[in-house]
Specification:
Layout (H helix, E strand, L loop, with lengths): L13 H14 L3 E2 H11 L7 H11 L4 E3 L7 E3 L28 H14 L4 H8 L7 H18 L1
Antiparallel strand pairs: 1-3, 2-3
Helix pairs in contact: 1-2, 2-3, 4-5, 4-6, 5-6
Length: 158
């Protein structure tokens, strides 16, 4: 079912949009605001999301959702404030029925991936992360980010 993108910002459509947001967050708790906005855009036949759409979805979720702000990352969103956590155990690359990219992970789940990787191989957790995410190429910036998550996980544990 594709919804009409022309309705997106209409005041009378806000209730329907709120309902869609709650459905997505029920199925996929602890996702980034960007991922949530993109999912809602996709339901409307759009292949991308805009800053205006992200800001509008943010305005909607602020009324009911749990939101974690993480510097340098898209905010992480849950259905309610009570659902918020600091670490989401690694759910797998295709936890929601489609393969996710590493840079689409919520910060809390990135820490969960780091925890999983360290538990699997304390000698080479970055290799585990690359394997889990099915990365074909290992770019220096990606490896650097994975190492940063491992360091931040350790700092959180101290």
């Amino acid at each position: 079912m594709t919804l009409n993108a022309a309705d997106y910002f209409k005041p009378q459509y806000k209730k329907r949009l709120t309902s869609l947001v709650k459905e997505v967050l029920t199925e996929r708790p602890g996702i980034t605001l960007h991922s949530l906005s993109l999912e809602i855009a996709n339901l409307h036949g759009l292949t991308r999301t805009s800053k205006k759409q992200i800001d509008y979805i943010r305005e909607i979720v602020e009324a009911f959702a749990g939101i974690n702000e993480n510097e340098g990352y898209s905010p992480t969103v849950w259905l309610s404030p009570e659902d918020r956590v600091d670490l989401i155990e690694w759910r797998g690359v295709d936890a929601f029925g489609f393969e996710r990219k590493w840079n689409e992970l919520a910060y809390e789940e990135a820490l969960g991936l780091a925890k999983f990787a360290v538990a699997r191989s304390s000698d080479s957790p970055v290799d585990v992360m690359c394997d889990e995410l099915k990365l074909k190429r290992r770019y220096e910036t990606t490896l650097s980010q994975f190492n940063r998550w491992i360091v931040e996980l350790k700092e959180q544990s101290e």
